[in-house]
Amino acid sequence: MIGNGKTFASFSVNDSAAAKKFYVDALGLELKSDQGGMMELSSNGCRLMVYPKDNHEPATFTVFNLETDDINKSVGELVSKGVKMEIYEGMGQDEKGIGHAMGEGKIAWFKDPAGNILSIVQNEK
Fold first, then answer.
1. Three-state secondary structure along 32-98?
2. What are the φ and ψ backbone dihedral angles of 85, each rounded to 5 degrees?
3. Secondary element (H or E) of residue 115
4. Which SS3 state, helix, strand or coil, does residue 22 take?
5. Distance between CA atoms of 10 and 50, rounded to whole angstroms?
6. CA-to-CA separations, 40 to 10, 29, 33, 51, in angstroms, rounded
């Protein structure tokens, strides 16, 4: 039956070495395997498959979200590692790139080295 197995997200990158450095060093994801650039990464039980694609085109939408308890601290940590937060017109973000997500949550977007859009999200409790 659908949904009985483990779930995962996947998307392509144009440079596996740059992606590996970004996802492991900057984001702190655990590298489970790397087979010819096809990487399985893990974040708190969520699996992510990142694979090389010669004709890669970056996604124009958010492909992966990371949840945090403190978005200000997390954004600061990412920026200190060289990650640039994205500012989108009309999204009501502050100077750090932090805006409001659905409901009372907060969100900040950034891109991986391949140009895919990711986010850091703080859900209000």
1. EEEECCEEEEEECCEEEEEEECCCCCCCCCEEEEEECCCHHHHHHHHHHCCCCEECCCCCCCCCCCE
2. -75, 145
3. none
4. helix
5. 6
6. 9, 10, 5, 9
Residue with tokens 């992966």: 64
Residue type, 96: K
Enter the tokens of residue 117.
């859009």
The tokens for 111 are 């891109």
Q: Are 119 and 107 in contact (CB under 8 A)?
A: yes
The model carries a pTM of: 0.90
Q: Per-residue pLDDT tens for 22-73?
A: 999 999 999 999 998 999 999 888 899 999 999 999 999 999 999 999 999 9
